[in-house]
């Protein structure tokens, strides 16, 4: 499997997860607010500090985003492109915003696909610089006592989201649990999800999240050769196979040239480039 060398010491802990009680979310992002501020308002009103929301069909103006790019120096293995600033209204086709905290304040990390005047594009939304243009309903899952915290990561030399409890959760899960999880570089994303679920005794789950992969191998034979990509899980599932969790992931991905690819991932041949942030929703057995 492909391997990428980061500048810092390799962490012994390759995956991290924190369990919590899910709170179903559905709220409206109000026009005139930046995307991150609008999402933060919805989370606060729901009593949540971490989780994710899915954005589909909403329109924003102005809209700002970046794509993966080569690093200009040896301090990182990859970096970001210059900022793209499409003219006019931009419609979000599909996006996922992972919600957490940075420096004690709400922070949003969002990857997605959007329709611009130049056609369909994909990347990393700059949520503080992107403004909601019309009411946009979003849905997702929040947690009240666990979140993602943006912390310095010695291995990659980036500041990255790390799952963390913010208070002791005394509630007993009613129905299903939710895991906030992170996968570190050079771990196959499907196998890592399976390992996380196995440790937590989860046999079936829905999987949501965003991250980066070092090249991509699809089950239909398609390939993405770029060593740095931005990825959105389009549909993620874990099912029980022969007594063990087995993950299947359909993703959207953009490479460093702006080319967009979609498909189902090969298990065991899709290593994380920098990080992958996940929300794993347990599905109770029928």
From TrEMBL:
Gene3D superfamilies: Hypothetical protein, similar to alpha- acetolactate decarboxylase, domain 2
Family matches, as InterPro entries: PPC_dom
Domain PPC: 172-286
Pfam families: PCC
Entry protein name: DUF296 domain-containing protein
Naturally occurring in which organism (per UniProt): Microvirga aerilata
């Amino acid at each position: 499997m492909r391997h990428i060398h980061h500048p810092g010491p390799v962490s012994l802990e390759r995956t991290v997860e924190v369990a919590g009680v899910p709170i179903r979310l559905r709220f409206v992002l109000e026009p005139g607010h930046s995307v991150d501020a609008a999402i933060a308002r919805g989370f606060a009103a729901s009593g949540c500090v971490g989780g994710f929301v899915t954005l589909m069909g909403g329109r924003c103006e102005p809209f700002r985003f970046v794509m993966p790019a080569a690093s200009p120096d040896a301090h990182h293995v990859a970096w970001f492109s210059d900022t793209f600033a499409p003219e006019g209204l931009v419609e979000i086709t599909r996006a996922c915003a992972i919600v957490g905290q940075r420096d004690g304040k709400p922070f949003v990390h969002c990857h997605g696909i959007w329709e611009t005047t130049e056609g369909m594009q994909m990347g990393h939304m700059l949520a503080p610089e992107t403004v909601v243009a019309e009411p946009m309903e979003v849905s997702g899952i929040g947690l009240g006592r666990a979140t993602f915290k943006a912390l310095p990561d010695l291995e990659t030399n980036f500041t990255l989201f790390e799952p963390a409890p913010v208070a002791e959760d005394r509630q007993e899960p009613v129905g299903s649990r939710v895991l906030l999880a992170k996968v570190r570089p050079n771990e196959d994303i499907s196998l890592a999800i399976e390992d996380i679920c196995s440790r937590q005794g989860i046999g079936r789950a829905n999987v949501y999240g965003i991250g980066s992969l070092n090249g991509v191998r699809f089950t239909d034979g398609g390939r993405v050769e770029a060593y740095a990509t931005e990825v959105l899980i389009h549909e993620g599932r874990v099912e029980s196979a022969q007594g063990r969790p087995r993950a299947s992931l359909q993703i959207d991905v953009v490479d460093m040239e702006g080319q967009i690819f979609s498909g189902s991932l090969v298990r065991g041949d899709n290593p994380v480039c920098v990080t992958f942030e996940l929300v794993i929703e347990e599905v109770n057995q029928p």
